Amino acid sequence: MKYNPNEIEAKWQKYWADNKTFAAKNDSDKPKHYVLDMFPYPSGAGLHVGHPLGYIASDVYSRYKRHQGFNVLHPMGYDSFGLPAEQYAIQTGQRPEDTTSVNIDGGVDKEGKVIAGYRKQLDKIGFSFDWDREVRTSNPDYYKHTQWIFIQLFNSWYNKNTDKAEDISTLTSIFSAEGNANVNAVCDDNIDVFSANEWNAFAKEQQEKILLQYRLTYLAETEVNWCPGLGTVLANDEIVNGVSERGGYPVIRKKMTQWSMRISAYAERLLQGLNDIDWSESIKESQRNWIGKSVGAMVDFNVLPSTNNQQPTTISVFTTRPDTIFGVTFMTLAPEHELVAQITTPEQKAAVEAYIEKTAKRSERERMADVKTISGVFTGAFAEHPFTKEPIPVWIGDYVLAGYGTGAVMAVPCGDERDYAFANFFKGQNGMQEIKNIFANVDISKEAFGSKDNVEIANSDFLNGLNYKEATKKIIEELEKIGQGKGKINYRLRDAVFSRQRYWGEPFPVYYVNGLPQMIDAQHLPIILPEVEKYLPTEDGLPPLGNATIWAWDSKKLMVVGCELIDNVTVFPLELNTMPGWAGSSWYWMRYMDAHNENEFASAEALKYWESVDLYIGGSEHATGHLLYSRFWNKFLKDKGFAPTEEPFKKLINQGMILGMSAFVYRVHGVIMSDPNEGFSVLSPEMPTLFISKSKYDKIKKGDEDESEKTRAIYLKQINDAFPNIHINLGSIEVSEIHVDVSMVNSSDELDIEKFKDWREYYANAKFITEDNGKYIVGREVEKMSKSKYNVVTPDDICNEYGADTLRLYEMFLGPLEQAKPWNTAGISGVFGFLKKLCRLYFDDNGLIVTNDEPTKDNLKSLHKTIKKVAEDIENFSFNTSVSQFMICVNELSAQNCHSRAILEPLAIVISPYAPHIAEELWSLLGNTDSIATVPFPALEEKHLVESDKEYPVSFNGKMRFTINLPLDLTKEQIEEIVMKDERTIKQLDGKTPNKVIIVPGKIINLVG
What we know:
Elements: H1 5-19, E1 32-37, H2 52-67, E2 71-73, H3 83-92, H4 96-105, E3 107-108, E4 114-115, H5 118-124, H6 140-154, E5 156-159, E6 164-167, H7 168-178, E7 185-186, H8 196-201, H9 204-212, E8 217-227, E9 232-234, E10 239-240, E11 243-244, E12 252-261, H10 267-273, H11 281-291, E13 293-303, E14 313-319, E15 330-333, H12 340-343, H13 349-359, H14 364-369, E16 377-384, E17 391-396, E18 408-411, H15 417-425, H16 468-482, E19 485-491, E20 496-497, E21 510-513, E22 516-519, E23 552-554, E24 559-561, E25 571-573, H17 582-585, H18 588-593, H19 604-610, E26 613-618, H20 626-639, E27 649-654, E28 658-673, E29 690-692, H21 694-702, H22 705-722, E30 727-740, H23 753-759, E31 767-769, E32 779-784, H24 795-802, H25 804-813, E33 821-822, H26 828-840, E34 843-844, E35 847-848, H27 857-875, H28 879-895, H29 901-911, H30 916-925, E36 949-956, E37 959-967, H31 972-981, H32 983-989, E38 996-1000, E39 1004-1008
Parallel strand pairs: 1-2, 1-26, 15-17, 26-27, 28-33, 29-31, 36-39
Antiparallel strand pairs: 3-4, 5-6, 5-7, 8-9, 8-12, 10-11, 12-20, 13-14, 13-16, 13-19, 15-18, 16-17, 21-22, 23-24, 23-25, 28-29, 28-30, 28-32, 34-35, 36-37, 38-39
Protein name: Leucine--tRNA ligase
Keywords: Aminoacyl-tRNA synthetase, ATP-binding, Cytoplasm, Ligase, Nucleotide-binding, Protein biosynthesis
Family: Belongs to the class-I aminoacyl-tRNA synthetase family.
């Protein structure tokens, strides 16, 4: 027999599928354990070896928990709505649902592109997923429930008194009985107060407008990241360096009417909940910073009347340092602040508008990160200090964000570094006052004093002599007395924009009557995405759904009908935006609990049984996006009586990234001369693309001046010999690094030149300055594994050549799960060799060689060391050291010539979470008819690890001469007697008697003198 991984793995993958080996039950008597992976977006590029890392880890853990007797739910699905599919549809004209289906199931798309398919790739690695529970967020039978959850949010408000979401009917009952004066809700700012009589007298439309100010999902004009190139709004995490992550298009800030989610209602619960979950401190800290709790005060500054501002206007400011109010020397508004247009004077209008236009091109993230650039414009307006009544100039500056606090700051340069830099930069301009120092015994001539410790307030009227806490309490009291402020807790967390101007997303279950949103009754869900001819926005700027011809709601027939029937009497327009990608991923773990329930997103019984995810594994890049939104939706569903727990994920592990080893070729850009006597000319079209090998490039780049010139001269001759009609001035040589597909490079870093020429049409005639041996050597660098860097290694290739078990073991062996680690295909062969060595314990060329011999003491010690180590490692997620232990164990058993069933049968179980296919095969060869997958994990017997004897070093005058194996229970006297009678001792002493015999039982024997 030989180890044939392809044959073995296909056999057992079919067995698992046919027998539904990993199907979880919702009514098991076993204890439950729910292991979840962050499900993938199914792109056409498929999986590379970096993707399965977390999946393999979760699979090892899932299989281990089954061995421990748990009913394990380990599901998989696809986050299949997304911008990449829509962009591909725009480029190729293919339907996103078609390309998404091919990306998952495999096949050939309409462009003729062969797609491996995520499902086939995942199956090939041998994951123990319960595929009967698969979900795809883009399937109508899934997103009907996402639409239902949206309706629940729309029909809810957040009651601060009960600290939970409640049905909107409880709010209207309060309005009808007593008005809104005493309602303690999370809602819009500046809501007008009304009585019960006024509420009951309001027209229905007016009531609906008021309720929108309280609903947990609502329509509002919001500052958004608008990407004209993609025709859609982007979330902050979809923007990198001011451009879209997808495509690199410019992004600007603009106001649009959008659906928003009132996640801010849950800010404190999201913050406190972090104390109850087993997540890494770095992820928790990211969420704490994103939520950004601040304790301080709201302060109102009255804007002084000017020629264009006669109406009373107030600028409200949230500050964490109200104690410094007497140090205010100017105010700064965000460029997008709604008051800017109102208070700007005619003289400053042009400068302000130009600044706003410039700022709109920078994302919020970019503005927050840029602490070096100082920019701003004076509005021409002044505000009045609440206490001194002094005029304070009002500026705009992009370091202030409209979405944080009130979008305005009271600038205290003596106590804040950014205010300090701003005041000094614009010193003496447009009413910018001198910096006031309100701290006693503090020098602010060179920098601001931002500490709250050891503060004594000065030059501050009634606050003089007080410390930070005393002054804060006092100033809040005084602000409340004059009606210009109050104490307040603020959060950085903003309500989440929930609209996207895209086609490929969940349709909103919303139609509009007189411009007001109405929910479609849940019994008519799902509202399915309509067909459209093109996926771009319409010519008049509407979202892609504006291209749909059948996209209106008939309120009588209760169905979607043609747009030509819209009469705004019985047939109304449907919402044209779609939900963002995070809608479907904010509750998917619950759907896995009851994936085929047509009536509910999951039954109460299933939710009660599985409760929440016990282990969640995924990337840290989702720290403040997916994870925060998921916790928000889970808490909301808990409030509404659906989710059984407050938090969705008990334990979270972020797997590190597998890095790729990129390869580079070096392209030469020289100056071409048609004739040396005629001087330089432009690059000749006859000149082939030229590449220089790495070491020769390094000599030019790194060599000393003389060596570099010599090298240049040699290369110049080589080039001119090759191209006699073209002359190059290598004195002006420039070289650019170009990524090359790693499949064209061998383990010696040698480029396959012919393959490279065939790779791109424009490289067909390329010329190469090679090494002296005629080989072209590429450069190497460890980078993120990415298709764009051509450094991707596919798991399919590894599985085909070495088998999935080798891939699984190797990925776990690379290093600690949570650390980034470089991929090196060269290491695969060592793991493959280990598996072949493992097999040789069980069978040889003639078949099974396992015996029923009694195991030796050493056999048992090797086995139980491994049982102990592997169990501890899996519980601690230290998978890499388990693989090391497997190798040690197999080496030891091989040296012991062990073929005992009593050892090899439990060994197959111990290794099965990591290498399940070969474990199943060995288990079967041993005569077992059931799957190894649910066999109990071998029990550790500590007695086999207890040492009964000791290999003592025997030394003479401190020098070790030989060793002797003795039982550990011997006394000093017994040890001395045995050693003195040993022939080797007698020979060493040569008739002499030692002056002293030093014996430490279990450690040393030393004869002195």
